[in-house]
Amino acid sequence: MFLEYVTSNFEDVWIITTRAGIEYRRYPVTNEELKDGALNDFFGCDALPKERDCADKTCTFYDVDTEYFHKDQVDVNVCSEECPEEYPWLGNPYGEA
């Protein structure tokens, strides 16, 4: 609801990637210049990451214990044919054993 509110009620709010934000800081332009296409390589829809074809498999992990939470069961959607051996988390993003 927050994003819908700010993008509907304010003309100078942009939801952008980190890369676009860095480019804007390097080459600042006005809101009107952005609307006219300035920095389109970073702000335009073509600059968004392309979606991958994905099998969208659900992996279930039991007895997940991190420094932030403990869960008896966690379901994670992955874009691969095989599930990671362990629950992917900080310091082990690929879920390697």
List keywords for this structure.
97 residues, alpha+beta, 2 domains, 2 strands
Briefly summarize what is shown:
The chain has 97 residues and is of the alpha+beta class. The protein contains four helices and two strands. The protein has two domains: 2-47, no CATH class; 52-97, no CATH class.
Task: Describe the protein's architecture and organization.
This protein is an alpha+beta fold. The chain has two domains: 46 residues, no CATH class; 46 residues, no CATH class. It is built from four helices and two strands, in the order H-H-H-H-E-E. The protein has a two-stranded antiparallel ribbon. Strand 1 and strand 2 form a beta hairpin. The model has no long low-confidence stretch (mean pLDDT 83).
- Biggest sheet details: 2 strands, antiparallel
Element string (H = helix, E = strand)? HHHHEE
Helix count, DSSP H or I runs of 4 or more residues:
4
Contiguous uncertain segments of 5+ residues: none
Number of strands: 2
Radius of gyration: 20 Å
- Helix proportion of residues, in percent? 25-40%
Q: In terms of structural class, how would the helical and strand content be classed? A: alpha+beta
Integer tally of domains: 2
Strand order across the largest sheet: 1-2
- How far apart the termini lie comes to 39 Å
Q: What integer is the average pLDDT?
A: 83
Q: What is the 3D shape? A: elongated
Strand % is 15-25%
